[in-house]
Amino acid sequence: MPRVPALRNRLKDTPVTGTKRVLLAAPRGYCAGVDRAVIAVEKALERFGAPVYVRKQIVHNIHVVSTLEKKGAIFVDDVDEVPEGSHIVFSAHGVSPAVVQGAADRQLDAIDATCPLVTKVHREAVRFAKQDFEILLIGHHGHEEVEGTMGHAPERTTLVNSPADVPNIVVKNPDHVVWLSQTTLSVDETMETVRLLRDRFPNLQDPPSDDICYATTNRQVAIKKVAAEAELVIVVGSANSSNTVRLVDVALEYGAKAAYRVDYASEIQQEWLDGVATVGVTSGASVPEVLVQEVLDDLADAGYGDVSQVVTAEEDLMFSLPKELRKDADGNADERGLGGRVRQLDWQRNR
Ligand code: SF4
What residue ranges in the chain does DSSP mark as E strands? Predict the structure, then answer.
């Protein structure tokens, strides 16, 4: 695994035409759902002691996962790997009712860190299934969130993995279909898929509100503005993070000549900077700010010390912690029960 903090002074300050600068997208990094999920694991470790088991990666970021592993979290693929009677945290991406039942069958103490915005999609799926709708779920095959959502209405849901799937979809009643989506998709591509679906099913019903979440949308809006002025965009985040990978796609679509994803600053290649005056930087919703700061430090070594933020939205959303963690062992309300933004700043300060 690459070192953190990143190796410094690897990048050379080579001459370019124009003034070297960085455009730093805002919002970027941690969303409220990720913040809450990470704190849930930390608090579970404090409250119950190690080990605490976590089903799947709590959030899709290898630095966050390895940091929690060092504190005593054990990540498993499914509940049947967890010793009976243990504590288990369900990840921010959510789980199907079958997983909840599997944990109960093993007498596991479950802490549900599913992002409330994913839970909202689960509730929509259940409600539309009860109303006999067929659900067309736009999302990526194999993604944990998609598996969790489909598990809430398995008989009634068809996955739409890409626009190319649309011509082959088979439904029983074309006049009683609704679309839902994964929370972390490309807004533009999803709207294109919906357009194609509506061409096939003119009475297609929309979800009551957008399923693509505020954090995904805001980060895409910010990188669109940055990409229009940047020759190179660097997106910090992990390969299995859907919203991170979408940021690379969106940057390329909106004007960046090149865009790369890195987990760590040490992955930046000198040749990416050849002839580049303006570098755009952003990060996915599961990325702690410390990793972005390392990228900025390395870019400063290469002459890109002039950093301007491009702010397209302010975010102040916070979610309360999972109910199992809102009180301490003595039954007193926990001061972090209302959310984690303060804690996130602690994390940054401590490094
Ligand atoms: S990206 Fe959106 S849906 Fe996913 S955890 Fe963050 S806020 Fe929740």
Answer: 21-26, 52-55, 73-76, 87-90, 109-112, 134-138, 157-160, 177-181, 232-236, 258-262, 278-283, 307-311
d(C-alpha 52, C-alpha 89), whole Å: 8
pTM: 0.92
Dihedral sign for Cα 302, 303, 308, 312, please.
Answer: negative
Distance CA 57, CA 315 (A): 25
Neighbour-count burial of 84, counting CB atoms closer than 10 A to its CB (0-12 exposed, 13-18 middle, 19+ buried)? exposed
Q: Is 220 close to ligand 1, i.e. is its CB under 6 Å away?
A: no
CB 304 within 8 A of CB 21: yes
Q: Which amino acid is at 169?
A: I
Q: Is 201 exposed, middle or buried (0-12, 13-18, 19+ CB in 10 A)?
A: buried
pLDDT digits (tens, 9 = 90+) for 34-45: 999 999 999 999
- H/E element, 216: helix 214-227
Instruction: Indicate if the pLDDT at residue 178 is higher than 50.
Output: yes
Kindly give the distance from the C-alpha atom of residue 186 to the centroid of ligand 1, in angstroms, as a whole number: 14
- The predicted-structure confidence for 216-244, as pLDDT tens digits, reads as follows 999 999 999 999 999 999 999 999 999 99
What CA–CA distance (Å, rounded) separates 43 from 130? Answer: 36
Task: Please give the pLDDT value at position 328.
Answer: 73
Convert the pLDDT of each residue in 330-342 to its tens digit: 777 765 555 444 3
Q: What residues contact 53, with CB distance under 8 A and at least 6 apart? A: 73, 74, 75, 76, 81, 82, 86, 87, 88, 89, 108
pLDDT at 6: 56
Parallel, antiparallel or unpaired: strands 73-76 and 109-112: unpaired
Catalytic hit among 42, 124, 145, 231: 145
pLDDT average, residue stretch 120-142: 98
Q: Is 294 left (phi over 0), alpha (psi -120 to 50) or beta?
A: alpha
What are the pLDDT digits (tens) for 56-88?
999 999 999 999 999 999 999 999 999 999 999
Ligand 1 centroid – CA 268 distance (Å): 27
